[in-house]
Amino acid sequence: MQTKPNKSGGRIANVIIIPLVTLVFLSVVSIFVLMHWSARISDGSAKQSQLQLISGALQLVADDIAKQQSGVVTWDAAFYIANARHLDKEWVFDNITHWLYANHGFTKSAIVGTDHEIRSVYSHDQNNSWLTPDILAQLTPAIAKARARYITSFKKTPSGLYSFEPSQRDKRYSIYETGILTLNGEPHLFSAAAIARQLQSVIALRVPPAVLISLTPLRGEKMAEITHMTRLDGFVLANNQNSREGIGQYLLRAPTGKAVGVIAWPVGRPGTQMLKRINPFLSVAAFMIAAVVIVVAIATRHMTKRLAISESRAVHTSRHDALSELPNRTHFHRLLSDELEKSKEDGSNTAIVYIDLDHFKDINDTLGHSAGDQVIIAIAKRLKHVLMDNGIVARISGDEFAMVVPNCKSDEWLDYILDQIQDEIAQPIKIGARELHATLSIGAAIAPRDGLDPDDLLRKADIALYDAKANGRNRRSFFEPNMEDQVQSKDKLSRELRLALKNDELSLAYQPQSDTAAQRIVSVEALARWTKEDGTVVSPAQFIPVAEETGLINDIGLWVLNKACAKAHDWPDIIMSVNVSPNQFKHPRFVEKIMAILAANNLPPQRLEIEVTESVFAGRNDTVLKALRRLKNLGIKVALDDFGSGYSSLSYLRRFPFDTLKVDRDFLSDMNGNPEAEAIVVSIIQLGKALGMTIVAEGIETIEQIRFLQAHGCHRMQGYFISKPLGEKELARFLDDFKAENAGNVGPGLSYTLRAAEA
Q1: Which of 18, 63, 184, 738 has a Cα at 20 to 30 A from 35?
Q2: pTM score
Q3: What is the distance between the alpha carbons of residues 351 and 383, in angstroms, rounded to a whole number?
């Protein structure tokens, strides 16, 4: 398929180049914008970080002056003198105010009494008039907070007295508040601390404390400490803010909220500095990108000419299966939609056919995928040959094909076409020196009879295909409405079953097995039962096959095993027999799960018997045999159920030594004096005995059957004549009655005949 290098190539080039150039231009501009935006963000983050450093350092310095003050405020002598009627000012001067100045540099101090009166004022320069109403107003909030924290540190006890229980913060040092105020235009750090006893005792009445106020200038030594802590240079203490580029400002506020000064410093601008370094490189990179774009644009124009040539080939590849060269699922859906539109216009019928190769997996498994690919190619050619140009053939998936047959005159005409297809496929397919024979299962739906929506018709054809496969394969089915009802019913049952398992709506019934002499019950078979919330009983014949198809049988099987093993302790002398589905053996850790269930329920393996049917060996012989041998080696008994109803029975009896052989109920129901049926039952009993197996006859319904089995040495019996499947309570009563009736005169005459009949 060729495509000329015409205007199509230019259009493709424009479609590629114009967006590419636009994208590159926008990308370069975006990078420049992003870098400048990032630089601003980085500068802002640096400034914010430095503000936080200064704030933290300022708080640390303030806390430090409070700690320096704590030596004189937490002192019994200071407490009593500060609260005395007549203040000893000389003692206060020597031991508090002047001592704080001499040792810690507090230039101003004052003591405020319990009634807010100013009891003492100190200044290192003897100017004791510094405590003006304005200064006092700035200090008042801090004094009030310190008093409040001191008072609330005393907690009322049940006796009505107050015990000193300060907060974690106040336990370590004194109770204080710190802040900044302005004095004569200069910012000062202050600490207002409650004067308290060294050891607090229980008091009868909480009284506000006297408060010591100490001030130290921020400028000078304290500013140097802040500079050292923050590692920032160029600090300037100013009275007013002044907005300048590159200058950071930390606003100082008094406790009243009034601005009292500003700490200014040159802010580091890492983003701007980085931008200055990187801008030349970005410019060079932008130039190089522009050059590359130009080169790419020129090359793209040449490449689009070649791309235009291969465009049709790419479209074809996207719509067709690489192996068979048939339309794929997506393209088939479009073709089907178009064909249905045509048939709708001209009023003709269109058949939609689904085809599935029978047992195709066996070809891949035995001969390899290469042989499987050759079979697919051969089938595709034959389907196209039969249909010619009158329809559409597509490969939907691995071994599934679909066809559209237009102008479908009648079902008989379509039958003729499908006969031709099956006859053509039935011819041998040569793979090297081998000749393979393939068969098909076919499902068909016809429009407009079965609908006009493509998806709906495909679904109905698939339902018909499922019906053909379910009824033996190598056949065909036409869609009928009842098929859909069955599928929907099965889907509904599957969902209800999953919910029932989740909500623990399933239960177990137990059917007893007696020995031939009817003197004791030796085993019970656990059977799953399902009763819905509305009381509807769902037969196992309905829900077990659905569980097998949906994979729920694994969960149900493990639930039955666990439940049965747990209940086995209620009947300690009886073997618990549980059916195991073939699908359960597909789980790689099935044996380990059984072991875990036995361990969890503390049940000896010898008390568990699992029942398997001959179908368990189909396709997975070695795997199944290994699992069964592991179970048998653990001590678990293994029974072959429904013997004679499957295939290759004697082969499996030879390959695996079963403990128990269960005679299928159909053989017993066919006896009724029939010598051929009786001969088969006798042969099975003799065969099982010869191989050392326990023989169990299922489906016992008459006394004549029991006597016949007794006469020929059958070991166990199970059936409605002995007992129907019973619930837990009913089984317990049955076992009690059975023991009572057989404790004395019990013999081969079967003294429980009357009871069994009543049951």
Answers
A1: 18
A2: 0.53
A3: 15
Say if residues 118 and 110 touch (Cβ distance below 8 Å): yes
* Phi and psi torsions of 734, nearest 5°: -60, -45
Residues 536, 449: Cα–Cα separation, whole Å:
36
- Pick from 213, 218, 215: which is nearest to 250 by CA? 218
Using CA atoms in the order 313, 315, 318, 323, what is the torsion angle rounded to 10 degrees?
-30
CA separation for the pair 396, 331 (Å, rounded): 10
- Structure-block tokens of residue 688: 């099982």
Secondary structure of 103-127 in the HEC alphabet? HHCCCEEEEECCCCCEEEEEECCCC
Peptide bond into 481 cis (omega under 30): no
Tokens describing residue 39: 């630089």
The angle formed by the CA atoms of residues 408, 411 and 412, to the nearest 5 degrees, is 105
CA–CA–CA angle 639, 641, 647 (5° rounding)? 115
Question: What type of residue is 460?
Answer: K
Round to whole Å and give the CA distance between 486 and 701.
33
Element (H, E) at 676: helix 675-690
Q: Which of 38-52, 493-507, 649-663, 707-721 has the lowest mean pLDDT?
A: 38-52
Closest CA to 188 of 102, 255, 121, 265: 255
CA 172 to the chain's CA centroid: 51
Contact 654, 665 (CB under 8 A): no
How far does the chain reach from its first CA to its final CA, in angstroms?
Answer: 81
Sign of CA dihedral 120, 122, 126, 132: negative
Q: Are strands 440-447 and 637-643 parallel, antiparallel or unpaired?
A: unpaired
Give the rounded percent of residues in the chain with a pLDDT score beyond 70. 90
Q: Is 440 helix (H, G, I), strand (E, B) or coil?
A: strand
pLDDT at position 159, please? 84
Strand ranges, E, within 532-670: 537-538, 575-579, 608-612, 637-643, 660-663
Confidence of residue 1 (pLDDT cuts 50, 70, 90): very low
DSSP three-state, residue 655 = helix
What are the two backbone dihedrals, phi and then psi, of residue 576, each rounded to the nearest 5 degrees?
-100, 120
Least confident of 287-296, 460-469, 518-527, 702-711: 287-296
Q: How far is CA 403 from CA 179, 440, 444, 449, in A?
A: 90, 13, 9, 17
Nearest to 673 by CA among 704, 643, 699, 696: 704
Q: Which two tokens stand for residue 598?
A: 């036995």
- Which among 650, 651, 655, 666 is positioned nearest to 632, based on CA atoms? 655
d(CA 145, CA 126): 29
Please classify residue 130 by burial: count the beta carbons closer than 10 Å to its beta carbon, then call 0-12 exposed, 13-18 middle and 19+ buried.
middle
Give per-residue burial for 604-613: e unless 16+ CB within 10 Å, then b.
ebebbbbbbb
pLDDT tens digit string along 154-194? 888 888 888 887 776 655 568 888 889 988 888 999 999 99
**What values do phi and psi take at 190, rounded to 5?**
-135, 160
Q: What is the pLDDT of residue 758?
A: 31
DSSP helix/strand/coil, 615: helix
